[in-house]
Amino acid sequence: MHYSAHHLADPRGRVWYTSGVKRAKDQGFRQPAEWAPHDAVWTAWPHLAEEWAEGLDGPRASLARMIAGIVALDGAGRPRGERVELLVTDATAEAQARELVGAASSGVRFHHAHYGDVWLRDTAPVFLVDGAGGLAAACFEFNGWGGKYVMPGDTHVAAWIAGAAGVPAWPQRFILEGGAIEVDGEGTVMTTRQCLLGGNRNPGLDEAAMTDLLCASLGAEHVIWLDRGLANDHTDGHIDTLARFVAPGVVAAMAPAAGDPNRDALEGIIADLRAAHDARGRRLEVVTVPSPGAVVDRDQTLMPASYMNFYIGNHAVVVPTYRAAADDAAVAAIAAMFPGREAVAVDCHPVLVGGGGFHCTTQQQPRARSKR
Question: Which of 108, 221, 246, 362 is most buried by its number of CB atoms within 10 A?
Answer without folding.
Answer: 362
